[in-house]
Design brief:
Largest sheet: 7 strands, mixed
Strand content: 5-15%
Strand order of the largest sheet: 3-4-5-2-1-8-9
Number of helices: 25
Structural class: alpha+beta
Distance between the termini: 60 Å
Radius of gyration: 28 Å
Length: about 450
C-alpha cells in the first residue's frame, strides 16, 4: 500500500523526465483543487505539454509498466498515475460521450484548461516549480466559495456536468454562479443513462456532509422535476404542523437526508447507500395519501403506498444489488416499515419477540432504526426520539438486528428421519419455523420433535 506522498513523488519523477526531453508535465484537475482547499487526495492526473504521444510513452517506460487505455484518446497508466496529452474535444452527437478527442501537445495551457467543467477544476500545478497555472481564476473562486463554469459553450456540450455541479456544490458547500446556474437550467438531461446519473447522486449522498444542499440546488435548477418526478411531488405536500413544524414533505425529506448522512460513517458501502436511499425515499407515499381528516392533515398508509414510487426512483437509478448486498430489497423494506420502530415502542400491550423476528424477515432492523431515527430528528428538533434506541437495543438482544433467526430444522433433517420428499415437507418446515419465530420452540430438539409429529400427521413416513 502506497503512502500519500508516493504518488506525488512519482509525479515529480515523471515531470523531471519530461523536462529533460523538452516538455512540461503539470498535475491537473481535482488533486490540485483539493490541495488548495486542504483536502486529502490520492488520485493524480498529469498532463504533458511539448512531447508527442510515442515519445511520452517511451519516457514513461522508464518509470514502470505502461498500460494504455481509451479508444478515441490514449491515457497512459503508470505507477498508479494517469498521464495524458492536452486534448481537443469536438462534439459529434448527443450524449455525454459523443465527443471526438485528439491529443495535441502544442496546445496552450489556457486552451487545454478550457475543456474543464468548472474553474476550480481548471487549475494546473507544476510540481517542479510550485507554480499554479490558473487562466480562469479558479483559485479566486475557491476563495469566494463559488462554483462557476469555465466556458458556457463547451460546458453545455456535456449534460452530466449539471449533476456534477449539484454534487460539487454540496460537497464543498459552494454557491453556484448565477450565469452558470442559468446555463444548467436549459441543458437537456434526457441523454443521461441511469448509471451516470447514479455516479453523481452517489457522490452527493456519500461525500457531502449536508446532501440537502445538493438536493436544494437540484430543485432550483429543475433537475428534480426532470429526472426525479417522484421527489418533485413532495414539494408543497403539507404535513400536520403539530408533528412536522419544519414544513412540507420536501423540507422534511431534506432534513432527514442530512440526519441520515450523520449516521452512516461506521457502515460498509452497501449499507451506507441503503440508509441514504431509504432516507430519500421514505415518505414518497405521502403525496398520494395526504388528506385533511377530522381537522388534521393525515397521510394514512403512506408507508405501503410509498413502495411503488420508491421502486420507480430506484429504477431510474438502476439500483439493485451492490457488492452482493440487496440494496433494493432493503430500501423498499425501510420505506414500507419506517414507522414501525416508533409504533413498536409505544404499543400496548408490548410487542412480542415474534413481531421483531418477523419484521427482521422483511428488512435489516438496524438500518431501519437508523432511518427512523433520522426521520424523527428531521422534524426540526424538540421531539423524543429515544424509541429508536429502544427498538435497536431490543433487536440486538434478540439477535435479529440484521436478519431473522436461521431455521432450527431444515429439509435434510426430515429426510434423515425417513420422510418422503415432496411439497408437504415445505409446509411442515414452515409451521415449525413459525413456532420458532413465536418463541414456543427454542431448541433444535424441540423443533425436531415438532417436525417429526407434524410429518407423522401428514403420513410423510
Amino acid at each position: 500500500m502506497s503512502t500519500p506522498d508516493e504518488p506525488l513523488a512519482e509525479a515529480i519523477r515523471i515531470a523531471r523526465l519530461v523536462r529533460a526531453h523538452g516538455g512540461r508535465a503539470l498535475i491537473i484537475g481535482g488533486w490540485v483543487r483539493d490541495r488548495l482547499m486542504g483536502h486529502p487526495s490520492k488520485d493524480i492526473d498529469i498532463e504533458v505539454f511539448g512531447v508527442e504521444a510515442e515519445a511520452l510513452k517511451t519516457i514513461l517506460q522508464q518509470v514502470g509498466t505502461v498500460n494504455t487505455v481509451g479508444e478515441s484518446f490514449t491515457v497512459y497508466k503508470v505507477a498508479g498515475l494517469d498521464v495524458s496529452l492536452p486534448r481537443r474535444e469536438s462534439k459529434i452527437g448527443r450524449g455525454h460521450k459523443a465527443f471526438q478527442v485528439t491529443g495535441d501537445p502544442s496546445l496552450s495551457h489556457q486552451e487545454a484548461a478550457r475543456r474543464r467543467d468548472f474553474t476550480i477544476n481548471a487549475i494546473a500545478w507544476d510540481p517542479l516549480t510550485d507554480e499554479y497555472i490558473d487562466p480562469f481564476h479558479g483559485r479566486e473562486d475557491i476563495r469566494r466559495r463559488v462554483l462557476r463554469a469555465v466556458d458556457s459553450r463547451t460546458f453545455a456540450e456535456d449534460s452530466l456536468r449539471v449533476l456534477r455541479a449539484i454534487q460539487l456544490a454540496a460537497r464543498f458547500e459552494f454557491v453556484m454562479d448565477p450565469p452558470s446556474a442559468e446555463l444548467c437550467r436549459w441543458i437537456p438531461l434526457d441523454d443521461l443513462p441511469a448509471e451516470r446519473i447514479w455516479t453523481e447522486i452517489e457522490k452527493l449522498l456519500l461525500r457531502a456532509r449536508r446532501p440537502s444542499l445538493g438536493f436544494s440546488l437540484a430543485l432550483h435548477l429543475g433537475v428534480i422535476e426532470r429526472l426525479f418526478p417522484e421527489l418533485d411531488t413532495l414539494v408543497g405536500c403539507p404535513q400536520e404542523p403539530e408533528w412536522h413544524p419544519e414544513g412540507d414533505v420536501w423540507v422534511h425529506t431534506l432534513l432527514v437526508i442530512d440526519q441520515a448522512r450523520a449516521r452512516i460513517d461506521d457502515l460498509a458501502y452497501p449499507q451506507k447507500v441503503t440508509v441514504m436511499l431509504g432516507a430519500v425515499c421514505h415518505d414518497l407515499g405521502k403525496p398520494a395519501t395526504t388528506a385533511f381528516i377530522d381537522g388534521r392533515i393525515r397521510s394514512l398508509d403512506h408507508e405501503s403506498e410509498g413502495v411503488p414510487p420508491a421502486t420507480a426512483l430506484l429504477d431510474r437509478l438502476n439500483i439493485h444489488s451492490l457488492q452482493g448486498y440487496d440494496v433494493r430489497r432493503e430500501v423498499l423494506g425501510i420505506v414500507a416499515h419506517h414507522l414501525k420502530p416508533g409504533m413498536f415502542a409505544k404499543a400496548q400491550p408490548p410487542v412480542s419477540d415474534g413481531a421483531f423476528r418477523r419484521l427482521a424477515q422483511k428488512v435489516d432492523l438496524e438500518l431501519l432504526a437508523r432511518v427512523a431515527r433520522a426521520d424523527c430528528e428531521g422534524r426540526g428538533g424538540g421531539f423524543d426520539c429515544s424509541a429508536m434506541d429502544w427498538f435497536l437495543a431490543r433487536a440486538r438482544e434478540l439477535g435479529v438486528e440484521h436478519a431473522p433467526p436461521e431455521p432450527l430444522v431444515k429439509g435434510r433433517h426430515l429426510l434423515e428421519l425417513g420422510a418422503t420428499p415432496g411439497p408437504a415437507i415445505g409446509e411442515v418446515l414452515r409451521q415449525v419455523y413459525e413456532r420458532q419465530l413465536d418463541g414456543s420452540v427454542a431448541s433444535f430438539e424441540e423443533a425436531l420433535a415438532l417436525a417429526r409429529d407434524l410429518a407423522r400427521e401428514r403420513q410423510l413416513y
